[in-house]
Amino acid sequence: MSSQPAPESGRLPLPARMLTSQVVAVLPDEPVASMMAPVEVMLQEGIQVFSLPAGDVERLTTLHTIFGARGSFGVHGVIDPDGIDALIATGIEFALPVGPTPQVLAALRAAGVPAAPDALTPTEVRAVRAAGADAVQVVPADIGSATYGPALAELAPGVPCLPRGGVGSYALRKWISSGAPAACLDEILVGDACTDSALPALRERCRSVLAVIADERA
């Protein structure tokens, strides 16, 4: 896989851990207590970057306080403009906002937090990037075929795209090989670990995902 180009002037770089691991674990909207063991297991297995729903600042603060020295934390979903300052104060390192307002994007940029707003089609991806996005969150990535990553790389050249939503092993391989800086993995990686404590299965999924990444780097 080719190395990632330096960020364009005026754009913020994605977190180093994200670029190194190329995996973002997208956590579900569950109580913080149910996330503690799964996050610990994922860290042990080499998953270092986590995204939480943006609506619960206390949950984010708790996880960042406990695990922040070993992992990077960001947020996804709709971000309330009135709550953006509180989110930034938790120490988030990136944001995957859905339909962000100019106010939200401006606050993130002023705080040095890279943002990847949502888009899907090549036209939308190019437009979001042209509007100044640091990267683009392609969601739901599974709405097309598993080869959408290579196709999008041709139709929106030079745009750092982060696929999110239903990215299985084959699609992950295609996205990474076509230049995606990282993939945002939800149920495919996290599964039901936060609701039924199926931690051995979570470990296996972590190893499977990281094996795909390692294979693409070889």
From TrEMBL:
GO terms for molecular function: lyase activity. Keywords: Carbohydrate metabolism, Lyase. InterPro entries: Aldlse_KDPG_KHG, Aldolase_TIM. The keyword Lyase applies. SUPFAM superfamilies: Aldolase. Pathway: Carbohydrate acid metabolism. Belongs to the KHG/KDPG aldolase family. Homotrimer. This is Aldolase. It comes from Acidipropionibacterium acidipropionici.
